[in-house]
Design goal:
The chain has 18 helices and 36 strands. The chain is of the alpha+beta class. The chain has four domains: 307 residues, Cyclophilin, CATH 2.40.100; 120 residues, Immunoglobulin-like (Sandwich); 96 residues, Immunoglobulin-like; 158 residues, Phycobilisome linker domain (serine acetyltransferase, domain 1, Orthogonal Bundle), CATH 1.10.3130.
Length: 750
């Protein structure tokens, strides 16, 4: 028995479940959408087949021996409680597997007239994790919003996801992702489109209409099942095609207005599989129930599944088993390849694996690319067949002393099988490209988490890695980042990482919150490479932009420029803290320049000339604090002359500037005596005033009034004055103020 708990469905404020139920009979098993409908009516659970008036009749479905069938289920519980599905099979030779913890996508489509509604798909993350994760990223990024259904083939498929709506493919290539239990024996199956070559899937997908095994099995990555809206899929599949063609875009555009990740409380998917030892016409009874966690369980839905012999006309071709290790490049503009390394004069044996769901033995063949055959020899071990898996080893022996890159291509076909040529003839055998870097050290991913790079503000650390070649430097590597938003990959920056190894840095602007699957590919100039998936979590709220606007206003005293606002907001969306951003503002040349020019204006009655401004700012960027700069300006000959040109007039001006009062006779005499005797310079006397309790009170009071819009409380004033006396800098105090809950509350920042 398998069980799965489903949470409540939410989608853009619309109740999908209620909307969909306007077009269906609640509490009924539906034939229209080829799916099984349960009713979890808390008061009176019941299941009623609606294809016959005799409720004792039981539907029978067929499953090919040695293969599988994917079936969608639905429970129309209207209470919105989390539901648990339970599925059982009475015959161990025909199993029923419930897919769990998967992603649901809602595609809202319309032609602006008669075709309008939602197509809901459960992605099979548990079967094709890389593809499901990447398409989820594309959905979250908004890539599919306002794209069109770009291809209809009546009785076959509808297709969408072209970047420009012209049936072109995206700017990157992904490895095919096949599974022995995902074949096109069902209806409304969700799969990746590609070119005529394997491993070229990008953003386009298609949805089947009826079983399509002859042309699609093990040719296209199947990674989802329509659980709602199959009637809409079939309606789209029958619309007129442009210019009356039999394959092309609809004559009247049909738009995907939105594609959204949703949480689904109503739907589920099971896979029925008949093992290879099952005899023809063997049957099982499948029993499905749901429970709501409140002690309520639906009446059981039961149906019969029957094993049948696969038609002779269907001959599923063998495919390479995709290696989900980090030695496979994926999501790049290059053709996907598998990367291996070996020392000089050292043979390497590469494990090769293929899936053949017929259970037949396969044959592997291939050849060298780019003249690699003149630098190495290769040999195969004997093919071993276990169930649906064929394995062998490929041994590559580099020539003595050779260093560099070897490249070869392999293909897999069925050994001694004439039937294969009678089906699938339009599809080339599955191929794989292998690269062996001879004399280069392997690259190893040490961290694959997207985090703000504290050592490089404005960049996100996407991954860290090490190189077995200890002499390598960052200049030896290049990196590309596929951000998981359906757009072309961009270059990453490789730098030496703090603590050793290397890091890949980059930054991307997403338009929607979500966790995206980015793909980082790293290449060594000597041939080694490594790829890793990176989860990038983005949180976008209005508060982030508002906060950045507030910092521009309160710290830099101006309105944010569009570029700066976008950059800093994007960094906060990525997880850069408010404190980090505030510190960047108070550490900027612009902030320091404002401080210096403010001192010039206040004490010299003019703006700073460019040379003097640059000199003072350079000192601040080098570690001088604002009070040291102020002391320098107050101690300058210009200020001395402006205040009267005598020691007495100079000291009197300092009293008035800092203490807002005339000097007392004793104080005036003491300071003037220090100047007359040469004990202190004018700058040192100015520093004395700056270090006074009165000046610190003035500074802290100014911060309270500027950032919190109030006078300081006695305790806060005393504490900050003490910290200021003990060496805390004014920028550090400002950062504290603009990240304090009180400041955030005043400005409605969350």
């Amino acid at each position: 028995m398998v069980a799965r708990t489903l949470l409540s469905r939410r989608h853009s404020g619309r109740n999908i479940s209620t909307r969909r139920h306007h077009d269906r009979h609640p509490a009924a098993l539906e034939i229209l959408e080829s799916r099984w409908l349960l009713t979890n009516s808390i008061a009176t659970p019941s299941i009623t087949p609606d294809w016959a008036t005799d409720a004792t009749l039981t539907p029978t479905i067929t499953v090919p021996i040695g293969k599988s069938l994917i079936i969608p289920l639905n429970d129309s519980n209207t209470a919105g409680l989390p539901l648990t599905y339970n599925v059982q099979s009475s015959n161990p030779n025909i199993t029923a597997t419930l897919h769990t913890d998967n992603t649901f996508i809602d595609f809202h489509v319309t032609d602006g007239a008669s075709i309008t509604g939602d197509i809901v798909v459960e992605l099979l993350n548990d079967v094709a994790p890389m593809t499901a994760a990447y398409i989820t990223s594309d959905v979250q990024s908004g890539f599919y919003n306002n794209t069109i259904i770009n291809r209809v083939v009546p009785g076959f498929v509808i297709q969408a996801g072209s970047p420009n709506g012209t049936n072109s493919y995206g700017p990157f290539n992904n490895l095919d992702e096949f599974n022995a239990n995902t074949i096109y024996s069902g209806d409304g199956q969700f799969a990746m489109a590609r070119t005529s070559n394997h491993d070229t899937a990008s953003t386009q997908f298609f949805i089947t209409v009826g079983p399509q095994r002859t042309s699609l099995d093990m040719n296209y990555t199947l990674f989802g099942q329509v659980v709602s809206g199959l009637d809409l899929v079939k309606a789209i599949n029958t619309v007129p095609i442009t210019n009356g063609a039999t394959d092309g875009p609809p004559a009247s555009p049909i738009t995907i207005t939105s594609a959204t990740v949703i949480t689904d409380t109503a739907d589920a998917v099971i896979t029925l599989a008949a093992n290879s030892t099952t005899t023809a016409n063997d049957t099982t009874t499948i029993t499905v129930t749901t429970s709501d966690g409140q002690g309520n369980t639906s009446a059981p839905l039961t149906f019969v599944a029957q094993a049948v012999t696969d038609p002779a006309t269907i001959d599923d071709q063998p495919v390479f088993t995709t290696p989900y290790t980090n030695n496979a490049t994926w999501g790049t503009t290059d053709s996907p390849t598998l990367i291996y390394t070996t020392p000089v004069n050292t043979p390497i044996t590469i494990p090769i694996s293929a899936t053949d769901i017929t259970g037949a033995q396969d044959a592997f063949s291939g050849g060298w690319l780019n003249s690699s055959g003149s630098n190495a020899t290769g040999s195969f071990t004997t093919v071993a067949t276990t169930g649906t898996t064929n394995t062998m080893g490929l041994t590559v022996t580099p020539n003595t002393g050779f260093t560099g890159v070897l490249t070869l291509s392999l293909q897999v076909t069925r050994a001694n099988d004439t039937a294969e040529s009678s089906s699938n003839t339009s599809f080339a055998p599955d191929t794989r490209t292998y690269t062996i870097a001879v004399g280069d050290g392997a690259l190893t991913i040490t961290n694959a988490t997207a985090v703000p790079a504290a050592y490089s503000l404005g960049q996100i650390q996407m991954a860290t890695f090490t190189d077995a070649d200890t002499a390598a430097t960052a200049a030896n590597f290049t990196a590309t980042i596929n951000w998981g938003n359906g757009l072309a990959p961009s270059a990453g920056t490789v730098v030496a990482a703090p603590g050793g190894g290397f890091a890949v840095l980059g930054l991307n602007t997403y338009i929607n919150s979500g966790t995206y699957t980015a793909i980082v590919n790293i290449k060594d100039a000597a041939g080694a490479a490594v790829t890793t998936n990176v989860a990038a979590t983005i949180t976008i709220t209005a508060s982030h932009q508002n906060y950045v606007n507030d910092l521009y206003r309160d710290i830099l005293g101006r309105t944010a420029d569009p570029s700066g606002l976008a950059t800093w907001t994007n960094l906060v969306n990525w997880g850069v803290t408010y404190g980090t951003v505030a510190t960047a503002f108070t550490s900027s040349r612009e902030y320091d320049g404002d401080i210096v020019d403010g001192f010039y204006t206040k004490y010299l009655n003019r703006h700073a000339e460019s040379g003097g401004l640059n000199d003072w700012v350079n000192l601040m960027q080098g570690g001088y604090n604002a009070e040291q700069i102020r002391a320098g300006i107050l101690g300058s000959p210009e200020y001395f002359a402006d205040t009267g040109g005598t020691n007495t007039s100079f000291v009197t001006a300092l009293y008035q500037s800092f203490l807002n009062r005339a000097p007392d006779p004793n104080g005036l005499n003491d300071w003037v005596t220090l100047l007359v005797n040469g004990t202190d310079t004018t700058a040192q006397v100015a520093t004395g005033f700056l270090n006074s309790d009165e000046n610190r009170t003035d500074i802290i009071t100014g911060f309270y009034e500027t950032y919190l819009h109030r006078a300081p409380d006695a305790g806060g004033l005393a504490a900050w004055k003490t910290l200021l006396a003990n060496g805390i800098t004014q920028p550090q105090i400002i950062t504290f103020f603009v990240t304090a809950p009180e400041y955030l509350a005043i400005n409605n920042i969350t």
